[in-house]
Design the sequence.
């Protein structure tokens, strides 16, 4: 296969999205400045929360073996700090690609007809061996078109499954268990950063004794909406990667 027609690798496609427009580059710049500020001014209250800035993937650091603050010192502490910084850089890179896909026209306008054209070409046997363009199936409009990226690819559907499981566990713990503990942390981490807004909305009801039963429902509804927004963004990333992968490299 000639080099000019070889499909781009996944890291190359992610890099193109993460640097392809002003939104992605602006986010990457904010993250880079924040990361430098954390190392230069670790005790400053003006340094943004890097976990929040790189959410939701950054919260997976909870399950990783090394993180700052662990009871280690010496070389292990340096390794933990380097591992944490590398993980946040990776999370920021993915988030920048997601934001880049948000402004990528191919991700927003991808349709079954255009994807088939990219896969097979107009004169291929899969398209009947003719150069005549077949009419594309009508694309959904309105809210359906807006939410389509959340359900038409495995990446977004898998993420929604994680959100659904975390919310189901939280609701069972909140209404059926005598002590729910910190069950709400799972949907909060899964739907961050917008899930934090859902927590703030539900907090006043938690403080009122007569409305305490309503707080888990309010938080669950807000977290579900936040997860849906995240799924749409992930779906647009999947679309952009698919289109860029099918497009021959220049």
Sequence:
């Amino acid at each position: 296969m000639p080099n000019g027609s070889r499909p781009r690798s996944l890291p190359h496609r992610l890099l193109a999205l993460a640097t392809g427009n002003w939104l992605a580059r602006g986010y990457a710049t904010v993250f880079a400045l924040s990361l430098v500020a954390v190392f230069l001014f670790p005790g400053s209250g003006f340094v943004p929360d890097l976990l929040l800035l790189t959410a939701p993937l950054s919260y997976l650091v909870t399950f990783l073996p090394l993180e700052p603050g662990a009871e280690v010192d010496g070389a292990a502490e340096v390794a933990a700090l380097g591992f944490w910084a590398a993980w946040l850089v990776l999370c920021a890179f993915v988030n920048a690609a997601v934001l880049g896909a948000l402004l990528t026209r191919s991700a927003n306008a991808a349709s079954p007809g255009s994807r088939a054209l990219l896969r097979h070409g107009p004169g291929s046997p899969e398209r009947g061996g003719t150069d005549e363009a077949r009419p594309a199936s009508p694309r959904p409009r309105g809210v359906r078109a807006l939410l389509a990226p959340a359900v038409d690819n495995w990446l977004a559907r898998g993420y929604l499954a994680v959100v659904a499981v975390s919310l189901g566990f939280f609701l069972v713990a909140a209404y059926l268990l005598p002590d729910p503990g910190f069950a709400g942390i799972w949907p909060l981490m899964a739907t961050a950063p917008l899930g934090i807004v859902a927590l703030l909305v539900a907090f006043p009801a938690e403080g009122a004794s007569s409305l305490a039963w309503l707080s888990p429902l309010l938080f669950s509804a807000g977290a579900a909406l936040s997860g849906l927004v995240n799924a749409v963004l992930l779906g647009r990333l999947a679309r952009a990667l698919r289109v860029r992968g099918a497009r021959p490299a220049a």
